[in-house]
Amino acid sequence: MLVPEIVAAGGGLLFAFDHATIAGKLVLTLLAVVSIFSWSIMITKLRVIRFARKQNARFVAAFRQDRQPLRLFEKNARFPGSPVFNVYRARLGIADKISPAQMGAVNAAMERAVGETALSLESQMILLATAVSGSPFLGLLGTVWGVMDAFTGVAEAGSPSLVSMAPGVSGALITTVTALCVAIPAMFGYNFLVTNIRGIIVEMDNFAAELASEFEHKYVDHSVRESAFRR
């Protein structure tokens, strides 16, 4: 009977795997590789984001402790892994007084640092997004292929019955189950990581605006512009 065979096989999943076609097992192997990549990306990005937030908090606290914007630069302070510190470090050399045109160059340097750091934070996220969207289609491909082979086998045997069809259908459905097990955690992980990365990017934008305001107030010599207008 069918039920004792399933029990002997060690349960529904093992029974389905044993009766999966070669194409189905190839799809399962590919899904296993995708799952490994997805989990490695999620774990790595989560650690990077946690460390970045910790370093951001340390840097911002040190920066706001002394209202002199260049104090940390003069002390040669380092905050590795802090995206906000990358924005601070990217500004051009500031003298005692700079012209508005030079301040424009400083703003451009900080904007470029924000963009480059954002790209670095978002790197490999496309692979995670591909795992979310592509895994169900791979599972569906394996299922459709397996069902097709199952019906072909039944047609060739000439004895259509539940007992003869169940192993093939079960082996076909395991690819869809596996694909969902890959895609669902990747979807939650992707949404969580994207939300946190966007938060860090907003934090960088806000700090760049704050730093530009500090430079504008303390270092920009607007008399250069005024003298140019007078001419």
Features:
single chain; 231 residues; mainly alpha; 9 helices; disordered N terminus
**Rg calc:** 29 Å
Mean pLDDT: 82
Fraction of residues in helices? over 70%
Q: What portion of residues belong to β-strands?
A: under 5%
Profile the largest sheet: none
Low-pLDDT windows of residues? 1-10, 225-231
Written as H for each helix and E for each strand, in order along the chain, the element string is HHHHHHHHH
Structural class: mainly alpha
Backbone shape: rod-shaped
Tally of strands: 0
End-to-end Cα distance, whole Å, is 101 Å
Count of separate DSSP helical elements: 9
Assembly level: single chain
Could you write a compact summary of the structure shown?
By secondary structure, this protein is mostly helical. The protein has 9 helices and no strands. Helix 2 (12-18) packs across helix 8, helix 5 (83-90) runs parallel beside helix 8 and helix 7 (125-157) runs antiparallel to helix 8.
General description of the model:
- The protein is mostly helical.
- The N and C termini lie far apart (101 Å).
- It contains nine helices and no strands.
- Residues 1-10 and 225-231 have low confidence and may be disordered.
- The protein is 83% helix and 0% strand.
Topology:
Layout: H1 2-8, H2 12-18, H3 22-65, H4 71-74, H5 83-90, H6 100-122, H7 125-157, H8 162-218, H9 223-230
Helix pairs in contact: 2-8, 3-7, 3-8, 5-6, 5-8, 6-8, 7-8
